[in-house]
């Protein structure tokens, strides 16, 4: 019983929460996933000492939020993003096919800790890369990336970005047992268990 109580008070999640950095905003995680996906796209570029790429990301109303991270990846491949199609050796068309946030497994971080839950952020891009000089398709595929971590339930609203739907997610509904009564109920159950153990022994 003592081991059970100690395990409830000091969970692995608690150690991660206390020692880790604050959770990144959902948009920042999606941007990181876009950067990882862009690394696969950039591998299809013809090798050059210096090159120029024309980049479009759809839908435009929130696709622009990923441009900077993707441009950095292309720059590492010696390709600079330009706005004029005439000067581009490579044309990259990216479509955001799926992007979003899912929250799962709400629970308490330790016996008296705050409420936490698992966060999974996903991004799927449809990529088409064209060699503008040879008029040939270098790459056409779907590229999916995702990342998972643990976040505080009361910080969910702060992790989202107003006006950008792909950064929003709804936490699972909480029942009565998920309220502030939970620690008292668990303590009572443990106390009853200890009482019954010693009563039966005597």
| Average residue pLDDT | 85
Largest sheet: 5 strands, mixed
Helix share of residues?
25-40%
The spatial strand order of the largest sheet comes to: 2-1-3-4-5
Strand percentage lies at 25-35%
Order of helices and strands: HHHEHHEEEEHH
Rg of Cα set: 25 Å
Q: How does the overall form come out from the CA principal axes? A: elongated
> How many extended strands?
5
How far from one another are the termini? 17 Å
Uncertain residue ranges: 1-19
Class per helix and strand makeup:
alpha/beta
Into how many domains do the coordinates divide?
1
Which secondary structure elements does this structure contain, and how are they paired or packed?
Blueprint: H1 2-9, H2 12-19, H3 26-42, E1 51-58, H4 60-63, H5 67-76, E2 79-82, E3 90-108, E4 115-131, E5 136-152, H6 156-159, H7 181-201
Parallel strand pairs: 1-2, 1-3
Antiparallel strand pairs: 3-4, 4-5
Helix pairs in contact: 3-5
Structural write-up:
The structure is a single chain. With 202 residues, the chain is α/β, with parallel strands linked by helices. The protein has one domain. It contains seven helices and five strands, in the order H-H-H-E-H-H-E-E-E-E-H-H. It has a five-stranded mixed sheet. The chain is elongated and about 85 Å long. The relative contact order is 0.18. The N terminus is likely disordered.
